[in-house]
Amino acid sequence: MLGQSLEVKSTVYSPQMRAKGVIMITPKEIMKISKLTDCNDHTGARIELAKVFQRSFDCKRFLDRYKALKEIHLIEGSLNYHLGLYRDSLDKSFFEYIKEEAGEEVFNRIHTAF
């Protein structure tokens, strides 16, 4: 999927974070997330993304929920339809939160990894 085609040449900054000199996410982190998605570990990719952004703003509520989903997935052996719908709903909130907190530029670069 994306792991082969994404060329990330520099660290991704939001305008707000660039002004503060804070790095939001590195190309290496984007590639790791992309590889998790390529290996069909979509929940794991979201966990990694929440960990990255936890450094800059509060993503604990998302991180905890994604970890719980991952645990259920491992116990059950698959992510059933209803949990998939829940994850989709959680994704919508999480991605909106990232866009709001980190800015459109960062969101667009990250979203390509999914």
Explain this structure to me?
This protein has 114 residues and is mainly alpha-helical. Helices cover 68% and strands 0% of the residues. The protein has helices at 15-20, 27-38, 42-54, 60-76, 81-102, 104-111. Helix 5 packs antiparallel against helix 6. The longest helix has 22 residues, at 81-102. It is globular, with a radius of gyration of 14 Å. Mean pLDDT is 81; it is low at 1-10.
How helical, in percent, are the residues? 55-70%
Apparent shape: globular
The Rg value, from CA coordinates, equals 14 Å
Rounded mean pLDDT is: 81
Order of secondary-structure elements: HHHHHH
Measured between the Cα atoms of the first and last residue, the distance is 9 Å
DSSP strand (E) fraction? under 5%
Largest sheet: none
Give the uncertain stretches in residue-range form: 1-10
Class inferred from helices and paired strands: mainly alpha
Alpha plus pi helix count: 6
Number of beta-strand segments: 0
Provide a compact summary of the structure.
With 114 residues, this protein is mostly helical. Helices cover 68% and strands 0% of the residues.
Draw up the topology in text.
Elements (H helix, E strand, L loop, with lengths): L14 H6 L6 H12 L3 H13 L5 H17 L4 H22 L1 H8 L3
Helix pairs in contact: 2-3, 3-4, 4-5, 5-6
Summary keywords:
114 residues, mainly alpha
